[in-house]
UniProtKB/TrEMBL annotation:
GO cellular component entries: mitochondrial matrix
Protein name from the UniProt record: Ribosome-releasing factor 2, mitochondrial
UniProt source species: Anopheles culicifacies
Primary localisation category: mitochondrion
Biological role stated in the UniProt entry: Mitochondrial GTPase that mediates the disassembly of ribosomes from messenger RNA at the termination of mitochondrial protein biosynthesis. Not involved in the GTP-dependent ribosomal translocation step during translation elongation.
Length: 748
C-alpha cells in the first residue's frame, strides 16, 4: 500500500535531519566563498499584527543553532525586534534581516512589521525575497492586514506558504482557516498537516504526505520531536483520504503526477517524490499554497515549516530572470538602510547578479559612486564580517553614504549602459540623463511606489541650536524609511513631517529622542489632503537671470489638465501638434529631463493647503532655452511656471479615506452602523462570520475616524474589533471642503 511505502521514506526523512546545532555549514559555500544559489532561500514573513512573526522567527533562529536562547516578545528580548521602541511596545516596526543555516541550506529571512503604518517596510522587503511565509493566528483566520500583505505578495508574484500559528489556543480552528484562505485570499490551499490535540493541548501534527504523527515532547524547548506511525485505523483512513484528495487536486495541475496516476491506474503506489515535486511546481507557479500548522509559542511545528521552506519555496535562480540583462555584472537592490552607532549607515543589499566584494564600488540612482568598505552577514543588529556576497544572497554593507532604501545598485556606469542596451531602451543618445536608472527600473518593473502620507505634523527642536542636529537625524531616518516625508514650510518656517499614521509619526519622535537625544516637539496631527483641478488651466512663463556673468533664460507654455484615472497615465506629455514639435525639437534630451523633473516636482504642492496634486497631468506646448542656461535653472523655471498656473486654476481638496473591517457580535450591529453613518461612512458589506459575529466592511473619511477604536470598544462593551488601512482619496463637497480648510488653517 502507498502508505506503508511512504511511511518508511518519510520517517527516514524526518529522522535523518541534519543536526541543527551546526552553526556554520562550510559545505554550502562555493570555492570563491559565495553560496551556491540552489542552497539559498530568501523569504519574507508576513502577517496581520500579532499573528506571531517575531515568535516564529525566534524559534527558527534557535532550532537552527543560530542563537543559544529563545527570546520572547513579552520579555522584550527577541533578536529581530531590536529597536528600543519595538521592545517597549512589543511590536515590529522595522523589518529585520536574519540568516541561518538549516539542513545544508542558507535561509535569509526578513521579519516584517504587521501594523499598517509600516506597510512601506513590507513593500521594500518583498522586493528582496523570492518567497514568503504568511502566518495566520489560528483563532482569527485571515484578518484585514493578512489580505493587504497577500495583495502585496501578489504584486511581487511571490510563491507562498501559509503557517496557521497559535493552534494551541482553545478557540483555534484549522478548518475555518483553510476556508478563509480559499475564500478571502482567492487561492487553493493544500493542507499538508492536521492538528493533534491531547486533553485540549496541541502536542503535534499529522504529516499527511507521510501519514505519520509528528510529536513534540515538550522538553528542551521543542528541539526534539519524533515521527511515529498512526496506529488508530479510523484516523489512518481519514489521513489516507486527505492524501488522496491532495493528490487528486495536484494531478489536475501537474502533468507528471497525472501521468503517474494514469500509469498506476490509482492513487496508490505514487512515489512521495512525485507528490513533493508536484506541490513544489504548483507552489512556484502560484497555483496552490501549502498550508502547515503549529504553535510557535508552545514550540510545536516550526521545524517542519523550515523543511517546507526548503522543499517548496524557490531558489534565487528560479526567479529574477529580469536581471539577465546584467550578465555577470553586479546588480542588487537596497531593501533597507539602518544607522548603526559604531558602524554608521548600513546598506542592506539583495544581490541578483554578480558579486560584491569588500573594497569594491557600485553606482546608485543618484549617479554617485559608493565604496563598500565592509560586508556583514545579517543577524538583526549583530554583525559578522564576510569578504563578499554573490547573486541570490544578502549582504549588509558599510561604506555607502547616500544610498537610500529602494535604490537599484549596479557595478558601474558601463554595466548600466550595457544592460540598457540589452533591453534596447538606450535609444541613439549617448548623453547620460538623470533618468537612466529610473528608465531601467521602470523597464524592469522595479519602481517602488512610496505610499501617500495620510497625516502630517510640524516638528521643532527644543532650541534653535539643535535644528541642524534634528535635520540630520530626520535625514538619516528618512534614508531608512522612505515613507516618512519631510518638507520645509516656507510660510511658517517649520519642518513638516508626513507619515502613514499617528503611530508612524510618534515612533519617529521617540526614535529622535532615544537614538539622537533630541527632545523634539511635534505639532498637532493634521490630515494630509490632496488637491486636484476641475478643468484644464494653461499658462506661459519666462524666467531670466544673470548668474556669474552668464545669462540664463527659459520661456515656456504649458497646460495642467485633469485625468480621469491616474493608473499608468504619463504625468508629463509633449503636445504633438506640428507647431509644438517644431519648438520642442531643439531641446536636448538632458535639458528635457531636467525640465520634466522640475515641472513634476511642482505638482507636489497645491495652492489650497499645500497638498500633493492628484489626478492631473502636464502638457508642454512650447519651450525655449537660452544658450548656456544651466540645468538647475531649467528645473527651477519649470517649477515656477507650474506653481503660477496652479495659483490661477480652480482646485479642489481630496480627503484620505480608510477601509475598515469591523468584527462584532451581532447584537451590537445596529449601534455600530448608526455611529458609522454619523461619520460619513459608506457601508460596502455586512456579512455573517461564524454563528454569532458580523463583519462590516466600510469606507470612511480619515477625518471622521479620530478615536474610532475607543468609541467602538465603548459601543460594543469591548467585544468588537476593527482594522483599518488607507484606501485612496475622494473629493469633498463644498461645505465639507470649507470646514476642512478652516480646521487645517487652525480657524476652528
Ligand atoms: N498562544 C500563543 N501565543 C502566541 C503564539 N505565537 C505568538 N504568540 C504571542 O502573540 C503575541 C504576538 O506575537 P509576535 O511574535 O510579536 O507577533 P508579530 O506578528 O511579530 O507582531 P507584530 O510584528 O507586532 O505585528 C505575543 O504575545 C506572543 O507571545 C502561539 O503560537 N500561541
Amino acid at each position: 500500500m502507498l502508505c506503508n511505502r511512504l511511511h518508511k521514506v518519510a520517517i527516514e526523512r524526518l529522522r535523518t535531519r541534519v543536526p541543527s546545532t551546526a552553526r556554520h555549514c562550510r559545505y554550502i559555500h562555493n570555492s570563491d566563498g559565495t553560496i551556491s544559489e540552489k542552497r539559498i532561500r530568501n523569504i519574507g514573513i508576513l502577517a496581520h499584527i500579532d499573528a506571531g512573526k517575531t515568535t516564529t522567527t525566534e524559534r527558527m533562529l534557535y532550532y537552527s543553532g543560530r542563537t543559544d536562547m529563545l527570546g520572547e516578545v513579552k520579555l522584550g528580548n527577541t533578536v529581530t525586534d531590536f529597536l528600543q521602541q519595538e521592545r517597549e511596545r512589543g511590536i515590529t516596526i522595522c523589518s529585520a534581516a536574519v540568516s541561518f543555516n538549516w539542513k545544508e541550506h542558507r535561509i535569509n529571512l526578513l521579519d516584517t512589521p504587521g501594523h499598517i503604518d509600516f506597510t512601506m517596510e513590507v513593500e521594500q522587503s518583498l522586493g528582496a525575497v523570492d518567497g514568503t511565509v504568511v502566518i495566520l493566528d489560528g483563532s482569527a483566520g485571515v484578518e484585514a492586514q493578512t489580505v493587504t500583505v497577500w495583495g502585496q505578495a501578489d504584486r511581487h508574484r511571490l510563491p507562498r506558504l501559509v503557517f496557521v500559528n497559535k493552534m494551541d489556543k482553545e478557540s483555534a480552528d484549522y478548518d475555518a482557516c483553510l476556508v478563509d484562505v480559499k475564500q478571502k485570499l482567492s487561492t487553493v490551499p493544500v493542507p499538508l498537516q492536521m492538528p493533534i490535540k491531547e486533553g485540549g493541548k496541541l502536542v503535534g501534527v499529522i504529516d499527511v504526505l507521510s501519514s505519520t504523527k509528528v510529536i513534540w515532547d515538550g522538553q528542551n524547548k521543542g528541539r526534539s520531536y519524533k515521527a511515529i506511525p498512526i496506529n488508530d485505523e479510523d484516523l489512518h483512513d481519514q489521513v489516507q483520504e486527505k492524501l488522496y484528495e491532495l493528490i487528486d487536486l495536484l494531478s489536475g495541475m501537474d502533468d507528471s503526477l497525472a501521468q503517474a496516476i494514469i500509469e498506476a491506474n490509482s492513487f496508490e503506489n505514487i512515489k512521495l517524490n512525485l507528490v513533493l515535486d508536484a506541490i513544489r511546481n504548483c507552489t512556484l507557479k502560484q497555483q496552490v499554497v501549502p498550508v502547515l500548522l503549529g504553535s510557535s509559542y508552545k514550540n510545536v511545528g516550526v521545524q517542519l515549516l523550515m523543511d517546507s521552506v526548503l522543499n517548496f519555496l524557490p531558489t534565487p535562480n528560479e526567479r529574477n530572470q529580469i536581471y539577465d540583462c546584467f550578465g555577470s555584472d553586479f546588480v542588487g537592490k537596497v531593501f533597507k538602510v539602518t544607522h548603526d552607532k559604531q558602524r554608521g549607515p548600513i546598506t542592506m543589499i539583495r544581490a541578483f547578479r554578480g558579486m560584491a566584494k569588500k573594497g569594491s564600488k557600485f553606482i546608485t540612482a543618484t549617479g554617485g559612486s559608493e565604496t563598500i568598505q565592509r560586508i556583514y552577514e545579517p543577524l538583526a543588529d549583530e554583525y559578522r564580517e564576510i569578504d563578499s556576497f554573490g547573486a541570490g544572497n544578502i549582504g549588509l554593507c558599510a561604506g555607502p553614504k547616500s544610498t537610500v532604501t529602494g535604490d537599484l545598485v549596479v557595478a558601474n556606469a558601463a554595466a548600466l549602459k550595457k544592460a540598457l542596451k540589452r533591453l534596447s531602451i538606450a535609444g541613439d543618445s549617448t548623453e547620460e540623463t538623470p533618468d537612466d536608472e529610473l528608465l531601467l527600473a521602470s523597464k524592469l518593473g522595479l519602481q517602488t511606489t512610496i505610499p501617500d502620507a495620510v497625516y502630517f505634523c510640524s516638528i521643532e527642536p527644543p532650541s534653535s541650536g539643535q535644528q541642524t542636529a534634528l535635520d540630520n537625524a530626520l535625514r538619516e531616518i528618512q534614508r531608512e524609511d522612505p515613507s516618512l516625508r519631510i518638507r520645509y514650510d516656507e510660510v511658517t518656517g517649520q519642518t513638516v513631517l508626513g507619515g502613514m499614521g499617528q503611530l508612524h509619526l510618534e515612533i519617529v519622535k521617540s526614535r529622535i529622542l532615544s537614538e539622537y537625544r533630541i527632545d523634539a516637539d511635534l505639532g498637532p496631527l493634521q490630515i494630509a489632503y490632496k488637491e486636484t483641478l476641475d478643468e484644464p488651466s494653461r499658462g506661459q512663463w519666462t524666467a531670466e537671470k544673470e548668474i556669474a556673468g552668464s545669462r540664463q533664460s527659459v520661456t515656456m507654455d504649458m497646460t495642467i489638465y485633469p485625468l480621469v484615472t491616474e493608473d499608468n497615465a504619463e504625468r508629463f506629455v509633449l503636445d504633438n501638434s506640428a507647431e509644438a514639435q517644431e519648438s520642442l525639437k531643439l531641446i536636448r534630451p538632458r535639458q528635457m529631463a531636467f525640465f520634466r523633473k522640475g515641472a513634476l516636482a511642482a505638482l507636489q504642492r497645491g495652492p489650497k493647503l499645500g497638498g500633493q496634486l492628484a489626478n492631473c497631468a502636464i502638457k508642454l506646448h512650447a519651450l525655449t532655452i537660452g544658450r548656456g542656461t544651466a540645468d538647475p535653472f531649467i528645473m527651477a523655471a519649470a517649477a515656477q511656471c507650474i506653481s503660477s498656473i496652479l495659483r490661477n486654476a480652480s482646485c479642489r481638496l481630496l480627503e484620505p479615506d480608510m477601509f475598515l473591517e469591523i468584527v462584532t457580535p451581532s447584537e451590537y450591529l445596529p449601534p455600530i452602523l448608526a455611529d458609522l453613518s454619523r461619520r460619513r461612512a459608506r457601508i460596502e458589506d455586512v456579512a455573517q462570520r461564524g454563528s454569532s459575529n458580523k463583519v462590516i466592511k466600510v469606507n470612511a473619511p480619515l477625518a471622521e475616524l479620530d478615536d474610532y477604536s475607543t468609541v467602538l470598544r465603548t459601543i460594543s462593551s469591548g467585544t468588537a474589533s476593527v482594522s483599518m488601512e488607507p484606501n485612496g482619496h475622494s473629493p469633498l463637497n463644498e461645505f465639507d471642503e470649507a470646514q476642512a480648510m478652516r480646521r487645517a488653517l487652525g480657524l476652528e
